[in-house]
Amino acid sequence: MPEPREHMRHRNWIETILRYIPGFRGYLEKEYRRESDRLLRTWMGDRIRQCKRVTDRLARDLLEARRITILPQIDRVRGRLDTLLGRIEGAVAGYSGFFDYVRVDERLLDRVYEHDLALMQQIETLIQKIESWQPANLGAEQISTVLDDIEILERRWDARTHILEGID
Fold this sequence. Notes:
It is a single chain. This protein has one domain (about 5-165). About 75% of the residues lie in helices and about 0% in strands. The protein has 7 helices and no strands. It has helices spanning about 5-10, 15-20, 25-65, 70-90, 100, 105-130, 140-165.
């Protein structure tokens, strides 16, 4: 899992020197935030795509096992994953245009990093649940739990957006 804070700490010596130029430090820090955000969203997108691949494989296995009654629920999971993926990948690059003009509050960034870490952990948990599904014993309750987890992830993504927009 990428650690957003580490991205800012790993800079080369030229960047370290450039930070001493008036005005350039803020520019670099803004770019670090944007790059960290991009890396995080890329990582999340990759993990959600992995979930989709697992659900696709599972759907084929269910079809081969002639357990077609559960396929619409699997398709629903895949559709919800598509929606979440679109929201994450469609987010504006960088934290927000807001940060272009206003000095960033470190406490706000800490909240965002903590929120991002929780999001990453929830995505990992979701992957583990989906990967543990077996065609022979997959039931509606397991699928319902994953759909609830995806809904929680969607709400957490909304909360992240609200934090960054200063609404929260």
